[in-house]
Amino acid sequence: MTATISGTRTYRLGEFHQFEGGGRTFVYVVHAGAIFELDEAAETLIRLARNGGTAHESLVNDLTTSGLTIADAEELVEEMYHSHLLVDSESAPARLENPPAGFPLQSMVMNLTNQCNLSCEYCYEFGADKVATPEGKPKFMDLETAKASVDFLMQSAVSRSAVQITFFGGETLMNFPLLKQVVTYASEQAAAHGKRIDYSLTTNATLLTPAIIDFLAEHKIGVTVSMDGPPDLHDKLRVFANGKGSYDIIAPKVKLLIEKHRTRAITARVTMTSGVTDVVRIFRHLKQDLGFHEVGFAPVTTSPDRLYSIGEKGMDGVLNQFHALAEEWLEYALRGEMHGFSNVSETIAELVQGVNKSHPCGAGLGLVGVGPSGDIAPCHRFVDSDQHAMGHVSTGIDAAKQADFLDRGHVNSKYECSTCWARPLCAGGCHHEAFVRYGDTGHANLHYCDWIRDWTDTCLKIYGTVSALNPGFLEQFAERKAL
Ligand code: SF4
Ligand code: SF4
Predict the structure, then answer these.
(1) CA of 412 to the centre of ligand 1 (A)
(2) Domain that holds residue 203
(3) 112 and 30 within one domain
(4) Domain tally, the chain
(5) What share of the chain is helix, strand, coil (3-state, %, to 5)?
(6) Ligand 1 centroid to 361 CA: how many Å?
(7) What CATH number is given to the structural domain containing 175?
(8) Which residue, among 445, 440, 413, has the nearest Cα to 426 in the 3D structure?
(9) Taking a C-beta distance cutoff of 8 angstroms, is the pair 16, 419 a contact?
């Protein structure tokens, strides 16, 4: 039966991206978001099918003239067909299904306050590109709203065995008393609902104290510190209202945090801006001088005409430095050590997990942001924005607004992405950045496509090399993080 059906097929090549690693050849198959190693016979098959319209019988015949038995040729064609490297000639390009309605929530970002004690010029909450409309809304979340938020998470995550709460701001630690109360309440509720719960927070570190650090360590709360490098770079934009840089205040606190908080990795998150693009020097300072376990970099989200916007040339320089750190990451991986450059680790984890995204991130899907008022937003960056609100924790998600956000943000809605091999990982990029740049959360972030494809190709080569030379190292990336 199978032979009869396959015998009538005419093939073309599916979408894939070919790359080398560790002396071997691989393909990244777009339809599946999966990686396959090619042997000589598979490479021959790809060459033979390159022009499309290849009938099954003729493909098998050509393979046998290159040395395969008929049985092996049939098996190879079948294997390639099922891995979507070969597809039916007339088939339409693959499109990803929508996630099912009522997709359960897994993560909540709670903005405990929209107030901050720093005045970073580039801040997406307060800067020129802000989307928030906080006027007339509470500045600090209260306990009642926080409890309602936790209850909403537990109800919306009904089929999940684990949930996550990320504490955010403003400056999160300006509402530390509430954070402590939420941890107590949410842990009780998680236990009552039979769920595991994980906490993390993002902070500018100015308000860290030994007592706060003890609490974070005791409750295994993951910490991400927003920090832009050594003093000359960090203090360019991460300043107090009087213009004074914050480096000298936070550096000793960060060192104490890293020394005392041993239960979770401590991460630095660097916002790259014009003049703050010296990636290797920043990495060395944060990793080696201060001792962060992981350091991740992201370009500032801004419209292109802001003074602190990096620009295309600056991003090319960033990419060169990313490549230098990526090479180091690979050397470490081949020795079985973690390097700490999280931009590689995060992409490798997605590759190991075979991620194939309908949406660029979990925003509005498995993840929501909640503002001090209890308004629900797609993620923390849209909190307090009337335009993007999608319900309230006391009444639940507004299904129509959520559907509109998800429909527009779906990769199938982004014309330019439909032929891009990097779409299983990128899916058009951050909704918030798209809104700031193009005024539409569903617009593809076309200003960085070449960059994304180059970086994805770099990470694929690293993946290929590690899988060829030290495959066991990749196992630690297999556990899927929450959406
Ligand atoms: S935004 Fe660009 S890089 Fe990303 S999937 Fe779309 S076309 Fe590809
Ligand atoms: S929309 Fe952007 S900022 Fe929000 S969760 Fe997604 S990637 Fe992050």
Answers:
(1) 12
(2) 107-388
(3) no
(4) 2
(5) 45, 15, 40
(6) 14
(7) 3.20.20.70
(8) 445
(9) no
Which of 432, 433, 438, 441 has most ligand 2 atoms within 8 Å of CB, for mutation? 432
From the CB of 383, is ligand 2 less than 6 Å away? no
H or E, element range at 280 = helix 279-284
CA 419 to centroid of ligand 1, rounded, Å: 9
CA–centroid distance, residue 425 to ligand 1 (Å):
9
> pLDDT by residue for the chain (483 residues), tens digit each?
344 567 788 999 999 999 999 999 999 999 989 999 999 999 999 999 988 778 999 999 999 998 999 999 999 999 999 999 999 988 877 778 778 777 899 999 999 999 999 998 788 766 667 788 889 999 999 999 999 999 999 999 989 999 999 999 999 999 999 999 999 999 999 999 999 999 999 999 999 999 999 999 999 999 999 999 999 999 999 999 999 999 999 999 999 999 999 999 999 999 999 888 999 999 999 999 999 999 999 988 776 777 677 777 788 889 999 999 999 999 999 999 999 999 999 999 999 999 999 999 999 999 999 999 999 999 999 999 999 999 999 999 999 999 999 999 999 999 999 999 999 999 999 999 999 889 999 999 998 899 999 999 999 999 999 999 999 999 999 975 543
Residue 417, domain member (yes or no): no
- The answer, yes or no, to whether any atom of ligand 1 lies below 6 A from the CB of 416, is yes
Atom of ligand 1 nearest to the CA of 420: 8
Ligand nearest to the CA of 301: 2
The pTM assigned to this predicted structure is: 0.93
DSSP character string of 327-371: HHHHHHHHTT----BHHHHHHHHHHHTT---SSSSSBTTTEEEE-
Q: Is the CB of 30 under 6 A from ligand 1?
A: no
Are 71 and 155 part of one and the same domain? no
Relative to beta strand 294-299, strand 367-370 is: unpaired
Q: Order of strands across the sheet with 10-13?
A: 54-55, 10-13, 86-88
One-letter amino acid of 277:
T
Q: Are 418 and 15 in contact (CB under 8 A)?
A: no
Which ligand is nearest to the Cα of residue 96, counting in written order? 1
Q: Determine the atom of ligand 2 nearest the C-alpha atom of 441.
A: 1
Final residue belonging to a domain, choices 330, 360, 388:
388
61 and 207 assigned to the same domain: no
- Residue closest via CA to ligand 1's atom 7 equals 417
Q: Is the CB of 426 under 6 A from ligand 1?
A: yes
Q: How far is the CA of 359 from the centre of ligand 1 (A)?
A: 12
Instruction: Examine the fold and report which residue of 368, 388, 408 is the final residue of a domain before the chain moves on.
Output: 388
